[in-house]
Structure formats: structure tokens, C-alpha cells
Design brief:
globular; 35% helix; single chain; alpha/beta; 197 residues; Aconitase, domain 4
Length: 197
Amino acid sequence: MEPINVVKSVYAPLDHKNVDTDQIISKEFLKRIERTGFGEFLFHHWRFNEDGSVNEDFVLNKPQYQGAKILVAQDNFGCGSSREHAPWAILDYGFNVVIAPSFADIFHNNCYKNGILPVKLTEVECEELLATGIAQAQEIEVNLAEQTVTTADGKVYSFSIDPYYKEMLLNGWDEIALTFKYEDHIKAYEEKRIVFE
């Protein structure tokens, strides 16, 4: 995984509540065995009309939000099934950070395991970001080390994160890589165990 420290980018305001994993990545696109290649199918049924044409009204299709690395949404983001393909699609599309008032638990944990920073701000703070970002594309800075989100006009929001996941994301570690941090302890334990056997 790539380390995350400071992400500064235009953000995409997705003004929807209860965005479920089937809306994030629909079931017909789950046939791949790799973790990559899902980004092109992110929010497919919102990004495209039934005839396959681009839905120009959808936020991700608007030119001012192209290249956004930060997604801002409403309550209960990532609800529905436990499919890990949802964070895969979000990351593959180019988002490193998702900001919302609340996340479904499994999706929230899957974000950490796949190198995405899920930031919980209050409902009022998210509403402010959504309103501002919809009115005009805005750049914000998310600083994981400082646990802050700073708007273009200098307003600062703070967020909390479990120190375990913070360390993982700052270093670009998954849970297997985190185990190697204790490699010397593991080796010493194994050597001691061999002596007693």
C-alpha cells in the first residue's frame, strides 16, 4: 500500500445518504480476480445512463471534479454487502480519502486494510463541505499526522483515528506488513520454543 500523510486535492461532493456497496460497485462487475481494474466501474449506474451514454449531471463526470483524490459524502457510506471490491474500486478510481459523518463498519475496516483513509466528521461539517463543494469546486487538505481537514478558506476540522490504523496508513502497511515490525520478537519466540521442544 502507498503511505498516506497529507492529501491535498479538489474534493468530489457526493450528496447522497446510505450509499451502499452495490451502488459503489455493482455485482455484475465483480468477476475479476485481481484487486485492480475496478475503478472504471465505480458508481457505474450513476455515471452512465441506461443507453451507455455519460450522465453529465453526475458529480464525477463534471470537469471541475476530475482528478479529485477526496470524496465527501453523507451518512452511512458503504452500507450493504461486505464486498471488499467497494474500496478497491474507490482506490482504483483515484480516491485516497473518503469523508462522511458515518460509515458501515465492514466498509470502514476494509478502507484501512486497502490504503484508504475514512474520515468521520460531524454531519454539520460534512453538510458545509458538500454545500461549498457543490457551489464551486474547492480544494481541501487532509493531514493524517495532524488529524485535520483544512478548507481553502482556512477552516480546520479535526477527526479521530485509532492509533493502530493511523500507523498502518502513515507507513503504507497492510496487516501482514505490520506483523513484520515484530519480526525480531517472533524469531526470538520461535528460537526459544525450539529449545524447549
